[in-house]
Amino acid sequence: MTLTSDEITKIREVISNTDKTLEETDSGSHYQNTYTYFYVPKDFGSAATTTDDTGLGAVLRLGGYSDLEEPENANLGKSQGSLHAVQSEVYPTQHISDETSAKAHQNAPGKQTNGENNEVIKRQGILMACDGRVLLRSGEKIYVHAADQIHVQSDENIALVTVNGSIDSTSGDKFTVKATKKVSVRSGVGDPDTYTARGVNNSGDKGIEIIANDGNSDVYIEGNSLFLQVNGTSTADITEDNSTIMRADNFEDIWGHNTSIFRGTFFELYFGAGLSYRAAASLNVATALDVNIGLFDVGITGVEMTKTILEVKSSMFKSKNVAVEAETTATRARSDAVCVGSTATKAESEVVTASIGNVKSLIAFWEAKIASTAQI
């Protein structure tokens, strides 16, 4: 077939159009166009042309948004693009939410900005989407760098695995970890993971658990101050020695019953002055030898009621001011170096048993004697 001169001229005009020109170079293909793409439709349609191709199979678009992404525009005589109807399958969900559905295709390459002298700066982007898998593998390093936000979303699970290396996360601002359900932090996990949670682990489905090497390694927490808010019960089960070093004041406010059980020996030292006040009655029972050694025993007692089986005391110095003292003693032995007592009121009651004579008859005899003497 021979081309006419007019046909050759028209072909040259098409080739010379800078908006549609394809330049073949030694390094690849240079497209002088606003966009170019590779598109594989999901459905090819019944016609032998591309006009009825629909759906997303796979697409790779370079540059600005393409005719595939455009909505219908009757004024310009444009029909809806094959990918506009399935916009939620082509663009990430967060992109549609950030830009709104109406502008999702316009800002898909990047938002237009105004430069110096209000010059409009257009961005050129990359769109890659498919209805299957995206496989990416590198024999060396992979670099991902964004000058703005990076958003990664999965509708199922996300797994980050390093076979031989570590994972480091660094934030220039705050670092937030959120979960709808449980958060678990574990170290020393083997392969396979054979750890079984203890029965006392009541973190449940929405709790937080921190486990160091299946309970065989240490946990270290350091900070300036610590505030612990417990809205329920608190339990500490310690299998070895426990030490608490308080280098400042200590305050405890217990609003309920307090129970302390010592199954071994105990040793206490107080090097400062002390004050103990009890507003209610108390009972102290010692079933073994109770030895108290004091340099001074100074006390002010309102009422003292004691019943002592055996009392042995050796005092260097004792000063006591007693308002009321009532004592009933079976056996009492006391050896005092110095004993100074000041008693406001002391009442002693002893039982006297009279076994010889009749007291009443003696009283009557002496009354009669006095009467006869008075008559004489």
The counted number of beta strands is: 12
Biggest sheet descriptor: 3 strands, antiparallel
Measured distance between first and last alpha carbons: 190 Å
Give the overall silhouette: rod-shaped
Number of helices: 4
Mean pLDDT level: 79
Radius of gyration from CA coordinates: 49 Å
- Output the structural class: alpha/beta
Question: Helix and strand string, N-terminal first?
Answer: HEEEEHHEEEEEEEEH
Adjacency order of strands in the biggest sheet = 3-4-7
Poorly predicted regions are 17-21, 323-357
Strand content: 25-35%
Helix percent band: 10-25%
Describe the structure.
- The chain is α/β, with parallel strands linked by helices and 376 residues long.
- Among the domains are: 34-154, no CATH class; 299-348, no CATH class.
- It is 11% helix and 25% strand.
- The strands form five sheets. A three-stranded antiparallel β-sheet has the order 3-4-7, with no helix packed on it.
- Strand 1 (21-25) and strand 2 (28-32) form a beta hairpin.
- It is rod-shaped and about 185 Å long.
- The model is unreliable at 17-21 and 323-357 (pLDDT under 50).
Which features does this protein show?
alpha/beta; 25% strand; single chain; 376 residues; 3-stranded parallel sheet; 4 helices; 3-stranded antiparallel sheet
Structure in a nutshell:
The protein is of the alpha/beta class and 376 residues long. It contains 4 helices and 12 strands, in the order αββββααββββββββα. Among the domains are: 34-154, no CATH class; 299-348, no CATH class.
